[in-house]
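Review session, final week

We close the course with one last complete record, chosen because it touches almost every idea we covered. It is WAT1-related protein, a protein from Eucalyptus grandis with 367 residues. Go through it on your own first, then we will talk.
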Amino acid sequence: MASSACCNLYRKFKPHLLMILTQIGYTFLYFITEASFNHGMNPHVYITYRHIVAGFVMLPFAYFLERKTRPQLTVSVFVEIFILSLLGVGLTLNMYFASLRYTSPTFLASMVNTIASLTFVIAIALRLEVLNLRNPRGMAKALGTLVSLAGVTTMTLYKGPIMRNLWHPLIHIGGNTSVREDWLKGSVLTIASCVTWSIWYIMQAYTLKRYPAQLSLTTWMSFVGGVQSAVFTVIVEHKRAAWTIGFNIDFWSTLYGGVVCSGLIIFIQLWCTEEKGPVFVTMFNPLSTILVAILAYFVLGEKLYLGSIIGAVIVIIGLYLLLWGKDKDQGGRVESEEQSYSTSEGRNAEKQRVVTPSLRELPKAEA
């Protein structure tokens, strides 16, 4: 009896547990990549190697699990995949991880929360999203978007005083950290990457309708994005030594990013999206922000600025306002669909009651 109750409890909260684990995985990603970059690894080389690794990891799963359901890859679909790879990998992640050299893991983790708001703004501009300010749902979405953008502006323009550490760091990430001086440059790179990330989410929805094979699409994007990143890296990085990594933190960060983040975590998020929907998955994003801030400040002794704290709190408040509006919006849409469905069922039943007596009278008339 107790084991059955535990199993039911596990099934109920399995998506919650998995999403918490994904956010923990993303939290470690920030610090292991920061340590690798401080060790001297080029961010663009990291992106290239990471997605090549992810492509090879996802390839057998995509091939065997979607062998019967995978549609044919046409030229037009491949062009869409090429653009998706450019937005989601080649352009976005190169800007995103390059900004880590000028800002901090806490700042990057906070800025990720703005993707939902930016996606909503772009969707309205493309008329993919309807905004009705006459009901509470529409007001919550608009207010949440404005609050999130205000938080981004605060983090970008207001650095503020450094928060004093309470004790010496328990772990020290060594390496060259002198490059992290241009906060404005890093902020611009981060914001630009979040904008392209938002466009990627919107375009991905279109491509999935034409190519509804999530594992195969992820594999294609990993390989194509890795090639795009390699071409870009060859243009900006002329040192052949930059492509050489030893059996050190550079190797482990690349392996971790490819296998765990671009492979396992993406698969978990796809599963949770199918089970609970995208709103449920997005609601867990602020958890990594909190975890990164705690580890950066209390364990690693990272510099934490007052502007980052204030801006992150504002962004999270705006995010949950937006998600509340979207969640209620989806709930209202489902309720209206159910109501219309029940109405149509009632009409069909009424027609059936009208038609049935006349059909029953036919044999009598023939007799």
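Two points worth writing down before the exam:
The radius of gyration is 25 Å.
Residues 14-322 form one domain.
Good luck, everyone.
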